[in-house]
Write a structure and sequence with these properties.
The protein has about 450 residues and is mostly helical. The protein is built from 21 helices and 4 strands. It has a 4-stranded mixed beta sheet, with helices on both faces.
Length: about 450
């Protein structure tokens, strides 16, 4: 009987603990379950939108990363420290820049409030009611009331969740108010956040109101809207409008995402041939390129480049189209021009570097290596740049350094087994007491520990 009781208690406790722990990793899992999009133009636009908010919040822009998640749902969240994740669905469904900026202000509120770190404390506090419930359940079972005891243990998850969601609802409301404050300080209106709630979230509130209260991690959207409305209407910048530059950036960002993500029919439905605006041509050029219609893609891009030869991203796209259609030599002038117009952009540096190596081999590797070194110095976790670095090192016959670059590439994506294998091979041939040797040694030690711990977890 004692063994059975202990077994039942163990299952109940583990179930309740798992439910609480899920909140700790939910945001990270959401990000990792979907692919991240790297695009210099979109990232630059989101950075331009976010920097005034970070300044208003007293945060350093270099400490905050902005990442784009290829996910169609309307969402943004903070995870993994000071990282703001923005779903493509949110960007594509917004009607004006101020709506996206309003959401970014809300997420900035989470960072400024230290909500992510405080969530761990809240989870620890939520364990108290859960453990009390489990303890009462055990006592009830011991007193001869197994049904009541089982109910208490089963309900422990609800007690813990109820405690935790009260905390998260408070956080969400605080982030709303902080975001409105940051918008006001940066001279922007908060009306976009309200209109976005009204159009994209509030229509589905009837579904959330049917859920158990202890599952509601956010306040009801109608309550959030009305609370925000009072704050925004009292603000001095409530009637501020989007700047022409923010609107231009918004239109091109949406056009690019729609061109890359939607079908050709959907793109042409949104941007019909009669629409000769630059964003429309941009979206059509992208979807034509995706569908291997090179003449049509180049025709649209030729017009765009002629109209605005100073746009680095028109040049980048033409270079990408040529490179991926087996014409790397022709792509080089476009990639070079894009980098001249947007200097020190890591993704643009990688584009030019790989075109140089593909077109010129060893002759182009010196410049490519310089570009890639600058890119990984600025973005040490850029796996794409490290892979190109490995290819360039192999082209130069520098096998040990190529192995080290491959280890870095695997390490950035969490493939510790591959990182360990590459780093061990690099370490065997690199000169001792050099920076490269020490880096290979660090990867061997860290990746080796991770591989062993994962193996132990699988065995247990």
């Amino acid at each position: 009987m004692a063994a059975t009781l202990l077994s039942s208690l163990g299952r109940g406790a583990v179930s309740a603990v798992a439910a609480i722990s899920a909140f700790a990793v939910m945001a990270q899992q959401t990000a990792s379950a979907q692919s991240l999009i790297r695009d210099a133009e979109i990232e630059d636009t989101l950075r331009v939108y976010t920097n005034p908010l970070l300044e208003a919040a007293g945060l350093r822009s270099e400490d905050v990363k902005i990442l784009v998640v290829n996910e169609d749902s309307v969402n943004a969240f903070v995870a993994g420290g000071q990282n703001i994740f923005v779903n493509t669905g949110l960007i594509m469904r917004a009607e004006r820049p101020n709506e996206i900026i309003g959401v970014l202000a809300h997420e900035t509120g989470h960072i400024a409030g230290g909500h992510l770190s405080r969530s761990h404390q809240a989870m620890s506090q939520a364990m108290g009611p859960m453990l009390i419930s489990i303890g009462l359940g055990v006592l009830a079972m011991a007193a001869g009331a197994p049904d009541a005891g089982a109910a208490l243990i089963a309900g422990s998850q609800g007690f813990a969740m109820a405690s935790f969601v009260r905390f998260t609802q408070t956080q969400e409301s605080a982030a709303d108010q902080a975001g409105a404050n940051f918008l006001e300080r940066s001279g922007q209106s908060g009306r976009g956040l309200i209109s976005f709630f009204d159009s994209e979230i509030r229509p589905y509130e009837w579904q959330t109101r049917r859920a158990p209260p202890w599952m509601m991690t956010h306040p009801f959207s109608s309550d959030r809207v009305e609370s925000l409305r009072q704050r925004v209407n009292a603000a001095s910048n409530r009637d501020a409008v989007d700047t022409p530059e923010n609107i231009r950036r918004f239109q091109f960002m949406q056009a690019k995402l729609i061109g890359f993500i939607r079908s050709e029919g959907q793109v042409l439905g949104r941007y019909p041939l009669r629409d000769t605006s630059q964003p429309a041509r941009y979206a059509r050029a992208i979807v034509y390129y995706r569908n291997a219609k090179l003449p049509q893609a180049r025709a649209e891009l030729d017009i765009l480049i002629a109209e605005d030869p100073q746009n680095p991203y028109f040049q980048e796209l033409m270079g990408q189209i040529l490179f991926e259609n087996g014409r790397p030599a022709e792509s080089i002038p476009y990639h070079r021009r894009s980098l001249e117009l947007a200097p020190r952009q890591p993704l643009l540096q990688v584009n030019l570097a790989r075109a140089l190596v593909a077109a010129q081999g060893r002759a182009g590797s010196d410049e490519a290596l310089r570009l890639l070194s600058e890119a990984v110095a600025k973005e040490p976790d850029n796996g794409f740049a490290w892979r190109e670095m490995a290819a360039t090192r192999y082209e130069r016959g520098e096998e040990s350094l190529a192995e080290l670059a491959s280890a870095e590439a695997s390490f950035t994506v969490g493939d510790y087994s591959s990182a360990l294998s590459f780093a061990e091979r690099a370490r065997r041939s690199l000169p001792r007491n050099t920076v490269d040797y020490r880096r290979a040694d660090d990867i061997v030690n860290f990746a080796g520990n991770e591989v062993r711990e994962r193996a132990e977890r699988r065995r247990s």
